[in-house]
Design brief:
The protein has 11 helices and 5 strands, in the order αββββαααβααααααα. With 259 residues, the chain is an alpha+beta fold. It folds into 2 domains: 116 residues, 2-Layer Sandwich (Beta Polymerase, domain 2); 109 residues, no CATH class. A 5-stranded mixed β-sheet has the order 3-4-2-1-5. β3 and β4 form a beta hairpin.
């Protein structure tokens, strides 16, 4: 909920930045969803028309860190159009849960309505050659972990493989991707998840995946961690008609392509 305290923070921000030629201002994040605590930032986007650059920064205002973005509205339209297609809805999530603080000519509301329509679009399931190559790559990383069991680089490779499993599982199954920094709380706290996702169109992974993923987050004996990530990998892709140890892909497009 927008309250006078938030309005005062935003007014102080605009005064501090000497900004007055905006067409809209939105606030989003934990302050809007009433999930804020003493460590929370206030997230603000200042929307302009015909603005050539895109700026970001933060200011401390009365003990609260206010993080801000300054964006051109046409660029925002371009930014969000492909987010559902790419299953990278980081901006759409902000707009779906934001509140409009200022809207000088109705264009900000028009944009937010459009963004929310996109956000509430069901994500299509997909499984193509790029996904097969990603599984092949994850499989190789897990095999690498066995040889790195006593190496300092074990944890870096482990968490890289873990997040590639999570994001690829989401893409293949038409599940909205979620930010890494919030994923554990979203998986553990159903009420927080509802507020954060804010759309009945988007679902979390099934309980078995979540349970196995959370096991993988525990810093345990490395052999236990290796067993956990193998179990998650097997569960995530076992229903696919694909064997990463026996396949060949012929790429017809020119490099470079994602590895």
């Amino acid at each position: 909920m927008i309250n006078n305290k938030i309005v005062n923070y935003v007014n102080s921000l605009c005064n501090g930045l000497n900004i007055s030629d905006y067409i809209g201002i939105i606030v989003y994040g934990s302050y809007v969803g009433e999930r804020n605590n003493t460590l929370s930032d206030l997230d603000v986007m200042i929307i302009k028309s015909n603005y050539d650059t895109q700026d970001c920064g933060s200011l401390m205002i009365n003990g609260v860190r206010v993080e801000y973005f300054i964006q051109d509205i046409k660029r925002l339209y371009e930014l969000i159009k492909k987010e559902i297609e790419n299953n990278d809805p980081s901006h759409l999530t902000k707009f779906a849960t934001c509140e409009i603080l200022f809207d000088t000519d109705g264009k900000t509301k028009e944009f937010i309505d459009y963004a929310r329509t996109l956000y509430n679009t069901k994500i299509a399931t997909s499984f193509g050659d790029d996904d097969k190559f990603s599984i092949f790559s994850i499989n190789n990383r897990i095999e690498d972990l066995e040889s790195l069991i006593n190496d300092d680089s074990f944890y870096a490779v482990y968490y890289m493989a873990l997040e590639r499993i999570r994001t690829l599982y989401a893409k293949i199954n038409g599940i909205i991707d979620l930010p890494l920094m919030k994923i554990e709380k979203i998986y553990k706290d159903s009420e927080f998840a509802k507020k954060y996702i804010s759309s009945p169109m988007h679902k979390l992974p099934d309980e078995e995946f979540i349970e196995q993923y959370l096991k993988c987050l525990k810093l345990d004996d490395r052999n236990v961690m290796l067993g956990n990530i193998k179990n998650l990998y097997s569960y995530s892709f076992h229903q696919l008609d694909f064997n990463p140890n026996n396949f060949c892909l012929k790429y017809t497009r020119k490099p470079p392509f994602k590895v």
